Amino acid sequence: MHWTPEHAQPLNQWPEQHLDVSSTTPSPAHKLELPPGGRQRCHYAWAHDDISALTASNLLKRYAEKYSGVLDSPYERPALGGYGDAAFLNGAKGDPEPWPGPEPPYPLASLHEGLPGTKSASGGGSGGLGGSPVLSGNLADPLYAGNACGGPSAAPEYAAGYGGGYLAPGYCAQTGAALPPPPPAALLQPPPPPGYGPSGPLYNYPAGGYAAQPGYGALPPPPAPPPAPYLTSGLAAPTPLPAPAPPRPAPTSYSFQAAAPGAEAGVSLKRKAADEGAEGRYRKYVYEPAKAPAADGASYPATDNGDCRGNGFRPKPPGAAEEASVKYGGGVPLKVLGSPVYGPQLEPFEKFPERAPAPAPRGVFGVPSGEPPKGVDPGALELVTSKMVDCGPPVQWADVAGQGALKAALEEELVWPLLRPPAYPGSPRPPRTVLLFGPRGAGKALLSRCLATQLGATLLRLRGATLAAPGAAEGAHLLQAAFAAARCRPPAVLLISELDALLSARDDGAATAGALQAPLLACLDGGCGAGADGVLVVGTTSRPAALDEATRRRFALRFYVALPDGPARGQILQRALAQQGCALNERELAALVQGTQGFSGGELGQLCQQAAAGAGLPGLQRPLSYKDLEAALAKVGPRASPKDLDSYVEWDKMYGSGH
Ligand SMILES: Nc1ncnc2c1ncn2[C@@H]1O[C@H](COP(=O)(O)OP(=O)(O)OP(=O)(O)O)[C@@H](O)[C@H]1O
Ligand SMILES: [Mg+2]
How much is the pTM? Predict the structure, then answer.
């Protein structure tokens, strides 16, 4: 055989190589490369391949013995075949006593016959020792391929067979003395209870029958015992159970898990679906035709009928669908009744002009549920109650165009936890403060109104600039009164827009601004009732960089309200133009959407107003045309520069909650 370097394989691959022993001519290269001493010890892989069959057999035998010694050190290996499989299964591999296995020791004399390459009955196959017809019958089954305890593994060095039968996965080299002897069989298998022994009767009913189990009285009565002919001979017929106890009263509260089944996983899926815009279970966040509402008209078919008042926010009461129908369409049935389907359907946008007069303040605002806190100016409280309560029409999720991911995040992280707070002890409190930041007119106030609607809460609106205008003392009184009013009338959403106007870092250097920061922080800390159950504080700003760290930290959640994307702009424009009696065709609308890139929702509304004003149509004698809008585009443009938008994104990355 001609020797080539590819024969120089490590020993662990050796059995897989074909070993041709037909040639007796030694390779001169081998002789030159191999050191004269230590060849046998260190250079197994370089052993001659031109050797006789007898030499090969002897060599294999010797290597096998050597490796068995290396492997077993310091573990003292018992005689081959000393362990049966049961020894490993019982964890008695360290038992110094030889296990009385039924199999005889492995016949070492036939080891080499199993090696591939030997021109023997094994046929030079790939089975290694395990493939030997002689050994395969003697090897323990199954073969353990490796050592999972991090020690030297048997698998690479004794490929497919050798030693594999001795090393179980997880087997660590250790002395047998370190292991305790196996416990007596009586301990391993406790005796069965009386009456359940192998020789005992099958059933062992107590003589007087079973006593009624407390707490299961509401279960239906058990079936009558089978008639005597069907009972096993010798088996005592069970005594019927006594009459069931009166049913326990239904629980008045429900746990978080019960109230929102699969909330955790479902929510994540929903967010994922919203992010990806993929077809998922929560397709309401992507553009699609409206789905049929739930049978009861509820946004989310809750499995519970409970009314969670843990934090003052309540889920929608039954019959909300009818109420919503009256509110929105004046009796006209709506396609989506309280269902937050964020699709391109126009119905939700058309319902604004048709809305019935503003309903009476929702929640329990009209009936104070709490005492006004001491130290609050009664005049300021009266002012807040009469002037700052938002009585506008409710805003559903579908009324906010676009912002799918943000709406999903608000609902998941704010609305659901507030409506259904976790009931288990030690669970984190739902967030009570949220900051919405983004360009002017992006829809921060609209989203706040939507939050109030979803929570069934009263909305109190404060403007930072208005608070800062009259003077520091009066502004502070108003601020405290607003928080107090919210606390007195839960559930309530307190919206403080232009939050930056209250803080010291103002560009215009308003004198009172800085003075309002301390009262604001005190109120946000709970001093004015912000931490009370049933009060959610929403701060909005278009200058998030003006917020110092103290203020920023007070808002548990911080969400970026971005400018509307193309489809959202199309929706807002359609709705605004429909109010002015203008209907653009598809091409014109697409062109308008294209031309209004970078516009906020507020600016799109201004564009339509400008178009109407430019056309000189105060009374709308003729419908607006595309040309009017083109002309208005020359006058109204986006206010936020790309640099501003970048700074929002940066701030969001640093301090935002992400969505
Ligand atoms: N995504 C939207 N869908 C429908 N209407 C929108 C949307 N975004 C904004 N609008 C409309 O634009 C107008 C301005 O919105 P809003 O007052 O909520 O903006 P804002 O972010 O609070 O602005 P500011 O920073 O000036 O307070 C509102 O009439 C609102 O209805
Ligand atoms: Mg606003």
Answer: 0.52
